[in-house]
Design brief:
With 292 residues, this protein is mostly helical. The chain folds into 3 domains: 13-137, nicotinate phosphoribosyltransferase; 153-192, no CATH class; 202-287, TIM Barrel. Helices cover 47% and strands 10% of the residues. The chain has helices spanning 13-24, 53-61, 67-75, 81-88, 118-123, 125-149, 165-177, 186-192, 202-207, 211-221, 235-250, 264-277; strands at residues 31-36, 48-49, 95-98, 104-105, 112-117, 155-156, 182-183, 227-229, 256-258. Strand 8 (227-229), helix 11 (235-250) and strand 9 form a beta-alpha-beta unit. Helix 6 crosses helix 7.
Length: 292
């Protein structure tokens, strides 16, 4: 079985065939440079937020080929034994220059420059493009949303639709670099310190005999700045009135409601009016936090 604990074979196959070609042609140690850049910003936004460098550095530091990798490559019957022996001792010895993560960059401006022997530079191309492209895309999108929010808290909830587990974790990291205040992804907090938070699901409300009881119990467990999901049944007739009732009965002043469905613009305006009428205070945008 292939060793899944490192990513040395996470590359386009032609990286390996070219590396073997350089080795056979006596060009393996020829010093080369390549730049990673983009030609235009597809959405016309003017800039990109660079991200993904930490994962690239971690990959390069661990880049090696174990016996499972060598056995797989030998089984393809196109690589010389001398090349496979070279890979058995492989370590990256080149240099990397890069803009710091979180830096705005512009078309045709290098995000990363690699100086390395040709064979080594070739082998890191795929992963370099993968991690910088993916995380810079998410960081840039997050930056656009944060700017549009004009100081309101923006949280990342991308795990359920991410392209795989790693995409969820580093996607949350990239969104944080782009300006998001936190994430729903617990592992991103544990690994990278991206603040994780959350509220409740519709299933919480449905587990109780009625909406009021569900809200009341949640606020008893999390009385510090609770956020109640108000659209399980009827946002205006049931959800918001029950949330207001619980907040008032328990004397909770730092609180919030959340809506996941419907005409959010219309419902948000109506919700704000109902909360104002109930005398619940308006908190500064930066003061809203979700309970853990």
């Amino acid at each position: 079985m292939m060793n899944k604990n490192h990513l040395s074979l996470l590359c386009d196959f032609y990286e390996l065939t070219m590396a073997n070609g350089y080795f056979q042609s006596g060009m393996a140690d020829q010093i080369t440079y390549f730049d990673m850049f983009f030609r235009r910003v597809p959405d016309g936004g003017g800039y990109v937020i660079a991200a993904g460098l930490e994962q690239l550095v971690e990959y390069i530091r661990d880049l090696h080929f174990d016996e499972d990798d060598i056995a797989y490559l030998r089984g393809r019957k196109i690589f010389s034994e001398e090349f496979l022996s070279y890979l058995r001792e492989f370590r990256f010895t080149g240099d990397l220059w890069a803009v710091p993560e979180g830096t705005p960059v512009f078309p045709r401006e290098p995000l990363v420059t690699v100086r390395a022997p040709a064979l080594q530079a070739q082998l890191i191309e795929t992963y370099l493009l993968l991690t910088i492209n993916h995380q810079s895309l998410i960081a840039t999108k997050a930056s656009r949303i944060v700017r549009a929010a004009e100081g309101r808290v923006v949280l990342e909830f991308g795990s359920r639709r991410a392209q795989g587990g790693d995409g969820a974790v580093v996607g949350a990291r990239a969104a944080y670099i782009g300006g998001a205040h936190g994430t729903a992804c617990t592992l991103s907090d544990a690994l990278y310190g991206v603040p994780a938070g959350g509220t409740m699901a519709h299933s919480w409300v449905q587990m109780f005999e009625d909406e009021y009881t569900a809200f009341r119990k949640y606020c008893e467990i999390y009385p510090e700045n609770p956020t109640l999901l108000v659209d399980t049944y009827d946002t205006l007739r049931s959800g918001i009135p029950n949330a207001i009732r619980v907040f008032q009965e328990m004397g909770i002043q730092r609180c919030a409601i959340r809506m996941d469905s419907g005409d959010l613009a219309f419902l948000s305006r109506r919700a704000r009016a109902m909360l104002d009428e109930a005398g619940l205070p308006r908190l500064p945008h930066h003061g809203q936090q979700c309970p853990g």
